[in-house]
Amino acid sequence: MGLRALIGRLRGLRAAKTSRDAQQLAIEFTHAPRSGAELLAQLKAMGLRGVRALTLTRNRSVMVSLNDGTLRVHRAFLAAPESVHRAIVKFLMSPRRADRLAARRVLIAYPIGEDERREPRAPERTHPDDEGMAAKLSEWHARYNVERFGGALKRVTVRVSRRMRARLGHYAPAQHGRHAEIAISRRHLRRHGFAEALETLLHEMVHQWQDEEGHPLGHDRHFREKAKAVGIGGRAKRVVD
Ligand SMILES: [Zn+2]
Prior knowledge:
By secondary structure, the protein is mainly alpha-helical. The protein is 48% helix and 12% strand.
């Protein structure tokens, strides 16, 4: 066989293999993923990298989050169309903030069925006796924003929570008509003191930064890098008790 013919044959073989792969992919995608593992395989085929495991959740407050290589996705997304699955990949992988924010809008717009939703709890308000402390934390939010985040963060309500028992603090993104907010546990303030609570405030401000940058919430690489940059450890929050 001449060289030209050999090259031609090799090209043909490669073309055949590619089309077989494409066919295989098409077969695999003819049904919606039925499990977290199937969804993960599908997202990887769409270009997702750096995720080791996928957990399906019913937690409607965060639809897609990433912690140490484990992606948490609301189970309603199993039945989502391919365009929405592509938006998950774009949200997690795009180097451009505008693209990530656009992808997140697709995810937020995807309806999570009422049966999948837990009844939303009435929003908690700061107890009147804790309002002074909440105001003080809000002042620190403004100060840290200028000193550590270059003034990039939006002003958010910082409140003191009496409901929060296991957690030290919480950042909630804007959703269902509510504004974004940070809550700091009153129990944490009383047990560990104000200096420790300020560290928790900074931790939650890093989550706020993730949200405003269009990154998924969670303790991933973006979180650790930013936490280090603003002067706190990148560890996940401790649990009270
Ligand atoms: Zn955290």
